[in-house]
Amino acid sequence: MVTNRVPTTPFSDQRPGTSGLRKKVTVFQQPRYVENFIQAVFDTVEGAQGATLVIGGDGRFFNETVIQTALKMAAANGFSRILVGQNGLLSTPAASCIIRKYKAVGGLVLSASHNPGGPDGDFGIKFNMAHGGPAPETFTEAVFKRASGISEYKIIEASDVDLGRLGETRLGDATVQVIDSVEDYAELMETLIDFDRVSRLFRSGFRMRFDALSAVTGPYAKAILEGRLGAPAGTVVNGEPKPDFGGHHPDPNPVHAHDLMDLMHGPDAPDFGAASDGDGDRNMIVAPGLFVTPSDSLAILTAHAHLAPGYSRGLAGVARSMPTSRAADRVAAKLGIKAYETPTGWKFFANLLDAGLITLCGEESAGTGSDHIREKDGLWAVLLWLNILAALEKPADQIVRDHWAAFGRDYYSRHDYEDLETKAANDLMDNLRGKLSKLPGQQFAGLTVAGCDDFSYTDPVDGSVTPRQGVRILFEEDARAVFRLSGTGTSGATLRVYMERFEPDPNRHSLPTAEVLAPVVAAANAIAEISHYTGLEAPTVIT
Ligand code: VG1
Ligand code: CO
Question: For the whole prediction, is pTM greater than 0.70?
Answer without folding.
Answer: yes
